[in-house]
Specification:
120 residues; mainly alpha; 5 helices; binds heme C
Length: 120
């Protein structure tokens, strides 16, 4: 009888342990940014706006079409002193705006601002 109850306790215990299932939410991996050359506004940043933002920001301020995006956001929406406070970065990263940058896009925008938000 005693043997049985120990066995029973072991089974209940193993069910209890096995029942704890953890779902890990892995953060999106950000591929390292190539630091060997400056980030280009024309070829790396403006295309993000064209793809994700222009359904609204083709007439909504700030206008983000490739031809005028730079003049619209620099300096008004960019803070080169504290890049992470730049509105062009914080608004879509907040998650409450209509569109959100992917982790890679967010990293590119931030890196571009850190490099001085150049029209290159
Ligand atoms: C579905 C429409 C829509 C999309 C898509 C959209 N926006 Fe907006 N955005 C708006 C509207 C409307 C406003 C006006 C203020 C508000 O509602 O936040 C705005 C305002 C802004 C502002 C100014 C906020 C301020 O405080 O002055 C920024 C910066 C901005 N959007 C960036 C972006 C970027 C970058 C993208 C693309 C990743 C984007 N938005 C995509 C509709 C949109």
């Amino acid at each position: 009888m005693k043997k049985h109850s120990i066995f029973f306790i072991l089974i209940v215990f193993s069910l209890f342990i096995g029942g704890c299932k953890y779902d890990f939410i892995l953060p999106e991996e950000v591929p390292p940014i190539d630091n060997s050359k400056p980030i280009s506004f024309a070829t790396q940043i403006a295309p993000i706006f064209v793809e994700k933002c222009n359904s609204c920001h083709n007439n909504q301020s700030p206008k983000l079409t490739a031809d005028v995006a730079f003049a619209q956001i620099v300096p008004s929406f960019v803070n080169t002193g504290t890049p992470a406070n730049s509105k062009i970065y914080t608004v879509p990263v907040s998650g409450t705006h209509y569109a959100k940058y992917s982790a890679t896009e967010a990293a590119l925008i931030l890196a571009w601002i850190k490099e001085g938000a150049k029209n290159n």
